[in-house]
Amino acid sequence: MLVFMAILGCKDEVLPKPKAQLRLEYPQAQLDRLVSDHFEFQYNKMAVVKDKKGQSVTLDYPLMKGTIFINYKKVDGNLEKLLRDAQKLSYEHAVKADGIQEKRFINEADNVYGMFYNVSGDAASQAQFYATDSLHHFVTGSLYFFAKPNYDSIYPAAVYLQNDILTIMETLHWKE
Fold first, then answer.
1. Which position has the higher pLDDT, 120 or 160?
2. Of 32, 31, 69, nearest in space to 51 by CA
3. Cα(21)–Cα(9) distance, rounded to whole angstroms?
């Protein structure tokens, strides 16, 4: 019995493993230019351009199961309605969101003015934006993931794609 206890008692102390955190790293964005009928901008080459039509563009990110939807509308004396609709769309996610942070965007050199909405929490969309020249052009955009909204799980991809949206806004040029 003493030999049996000596064998069992001489094992190394068992320590619990520390909790692991998933580390997702995405490559630095390589940019390409997208030209549509009404506007142009730079976008991340990781995105697959789909449904490029005169009024809309879809940037699909298969690796992240996310998509940025971009829609164009002509301003024809209806700027207030377009602004109201874009703001309303952004705040429809407030029910599930923990918070919505607004970031005003102004690029006087290219006549681009807009708003970026960073949505935190388990909302369907993690980012919304609009941009306009206030006279002729109006663009709205939304980021959606094709997964159940779980903010902790999609957070790294959401931040990466939000940066892509900011790049789109910063490089947006209107075509006359």
1. 160
2. 69
3. 34
